[in-house]
Specification:
homodimer, 445 residues, mainly alpha, CBS-domain, Tetracycline Repressor, domain 2, 3 domains, 3-stranded mixed β-sheet, 6 strands, magnesium ion transmembrane transporter activity (chains A, B)
Chain lengths: 445, 445
């Protein structure tokens, strides 16, 4: 049986020009991209059946590392046609990933105005508002009427970045207000833009970090927000669908960093990329594990006398690591969501310490009981129980303070936090457990 | 100095009715909500200065557990006025969280049509398309002209859920197509809806899980998508800002489940909630740690003879757990993003195994060297090196297979994966390390 994708590809292969035009109005470029992935014919010939405007949309939708791959299929002149139809934000992202010569070639082929715009977009860091924004927006003057605005819209026939808001600027491009699309639709034709516009606009500074931009969008729920420079001059627009990508990327980054993976690693990447991503962390971990080993080594005499200590070492380390990771994850997520501030920090610390203490008492008692019965030695039960109790509190404190300290040092709290936390619980947990055993050794043999 | 919030609150306290009307057009309800959090006066009196429509917007924006808290401030009659202005999806969410009697009271006070609609919304599971959608949408007929559509829009003056698309339905409410708002703005007034509408609409089945809905939005980048039943009857609309919340919740769930936290736990929650969320996982972990201990116990004779084995145990366990978590996290995220399918599964397994093997060789050699020198015993170096090598491969296999197995059993792959993975690496790692040492014991003493 043929798949949906195969049917689509065959339809395209056999389509007349007219049918293609019709198809390109109905077919989402993402679906064509997906079908192309398994296409065994010549992708260029297939894409070439579509108008350049549609090819531009396909490239707009492609993953960052595929964009230029698709564009390269076409001759230089057609390349220029295609990129002139691309969204400015996607084009800037693509230009940012290619070698300098290809970039220069494409820029040189652009019309001067657009080239200058693109060079400006390229100058912003990709992870800031400037790197996210598109420069396609619709601006009108305060003195225009709704009817004039509608005529103006029909004339310029906006595409690509759908206009959810119309921006109102003065002669110096300073943002004066915005008109939501619904106001245009429902206002009387004779009303003036200045009467229907919203003046108190939440704007995004051009150098704001993308995570903060994303938080603003999540807070207010707007479909698009204007980006301004320090003089309130309108520079571009960020739309909610860009934020969806930012959120997904930031999520991946959080998860990966907590696990000791480079955020660039891909699940279907190469072996070399995986090793580059993970080996450094494993080596850091080897270093911290050695630290724990060194602690154990300090007490090898004691272990030689009471081998049961070695038997219970995995419990001390494992439980401490897990409890620490719980608190750590909660704090890292709370920081990312902006839920931890100066005021509730103390409350959270108090809560986490108490939770650690209560867990320590409960788990300490259970472990003490099991170990005491197993080894037929009450003091042994006391030693492991006390170590468990203290290690649970240490886990809570480490899980709380380490990410907040990293945040204070302007390091991503997710980065390497878990390595530090488990090092703390391992080193201190073993020290307490084996130290206590050494002090009480005469009751253990 | 006064904060922004204090200034806002004072402005409201002293505002005339006229000033309030003006303010409510410019002030985002989220900003009022934020200011209210630290308000020392009477919230009800302050909110009561605003029209009911604005109070409804404030409740729409409030967190789920705060919505009814705010609504309860008002007398029954005003409650009904306020909820009649709320978004249908937010109202249904709120009704779903309150006790049966209060719910019944509010439902009974509604107009019949809306009550039936609300009862239907309440019947859908909150984590499906039906639970996410709102029922406010604008539907027109194919035969209408653009000019008629514009007049119609002016008449009904849509609010709340901004219309990004107009839906085209037949007499039986079957979805025939959609008209993007930009088509309305730029089409000739005389054009007919059926000429400008898009027919090939991607629809969402009403029982689709929210994670899949979120993936569809991320794939296509639409601002809103229609929800239909099995007869293609238009039931409601989901907008991208709802998806933002879903994404954030799903991400918290992933992170929390990987760390052994209940997804309902909040960073500023109570001690009791934290213990309920975490203690069960810690006890599961205690069980699996006991398993590892039992393995160690099997070899206590060997450890008694070669205490250095206990010194290197933390390295075997720690490295295995970390490498396993790396693979696990990559696979869990890949599953969530839909990046792992039947075809590339084998490729990924091959890659992960090879990465594990290469890491094993590199780290095995390093550890063998260090341990061999430290203990002045080549065989000891060989034992720990070989255990490290094999444990890295085990970590890769466990990190790969466990989440995929859970997925196959329809269990969230993030749930408990890390417990299983570290149990595997601990139990098998210790078995290999201590087992090998037992076999080669005469070269170690």
């Amino acid at each position: 049986m043929k798949t949906k994708e195969q049917i689509l590809l065959e339809t395209i292969e056999n389509a007349t020009l007219e049918e293609i035009i019709e198809l390109s109005e109905e077919l989402h470029p993402v679906d064509l991209l997906e079908a192309l992935q398994d296409y065994e014919g010549n992708s260029k010939d297939l894409l070439d059946k579509f108008p350049d405007e549609y090819i531009a949309m396909v490239i707009d939708e492609a993953e960052l590392d595929e964009k230029y791959e698709i564009l390269s299929l076409f001759p230089q002149k057609q390349k220029q046609e295609i990129i002139s139809e691309m969204s400015s934000d996607e084009l800037a992202d693509m230009l940012g990933t290619i070698d300098e010569e290809s970039q220069r070639n494409l820029l040189d082929g652009m019309e001067e105005d657009y080239r200058e715009e693109m060079e400006e977009l390229l100058s912003y860091s990709p992870e800031t508002a400037g790197g996210l924004m598109a420069t396609e927006y619709i601006a009108v003057k305060e003195s225009m009427s709704i009817d004039e605005t509608l005529k103006f819209l029909r004339d310029i026939s906006p595409n690509a970045e759908t206009p959810y808001y119309i921006y109102v600027t003065d002669d110096h491009k300073v943002l004066k207000g915005i008109v939501p699309i619904r106001s245009i639709l429902i206002s009387e034709p004779k009303a003036l833009v200045k009467d229907v516009m919203v003046q108190n606009v939440t704007t995004i500074p051009i150098d704001m970090d993308q995570e903060e931009v994303s938080n603003l969008f999540q807070k207010y729920g707007y479909m698009a927000m204007p980006v301004v420079d320090s003089d309130q001059i309108l520079m571009g627009v960020i739309t909610l669908d860009d934020i969806i990508e930012v959120m997904s990327d930031e999520h991946t980054e959080d998860l990966y960093r907590l696990a000791g993976l480079d955020e660039e690693e891909e699940v279907d990447g190469t072996i070399l990329d995986s090793i580059k991503s993970r080996l450094p962390w494993l080596i850091v971990n080897l270093g911290t594990a050695m630290l724990a080993s060194t602690v154990v080594r300090l007490f090898d005499d004691t272990i030689g006398k009471v081998v049961a200590l070695a038997v219970f070492m995995p419990i001390v380390a494992g439980m401490g690591g897990n409890a620490g990771t719980q608190t750590l994850t909660l704090i890292v997520r709370g920081i990312a969501l902006g839920e931890i501030d100066f005021e509730n920090k103390k409350e959270i610390l108090k809560k986490e310490s108490l939770v650690g203490l209560i867990h320590g008492v409960i788990l300490g008692l259970i472990v003490a009981l099991i170990a005491g019965l197993w080894e037929q030695n009450l003091v042994f039960g006391f030693v492991i129980g006390a170590a468990m109790l203290l290690n649970m509190v240490i886990a809570a404190l480490a899980g709380f303070f380490i990410p907040l300290l990293l945040k204070k040092l302007n390091i991503d709290p997710a980065l390497a936090s878990s390595v530090f936390v488990t090092t703390m619980t391992d080193v201190l947990g073993f020290s307490i457990f084996l130290g206590l055993a050494t002090v009480l050794i005469r009751y253990l043999i």
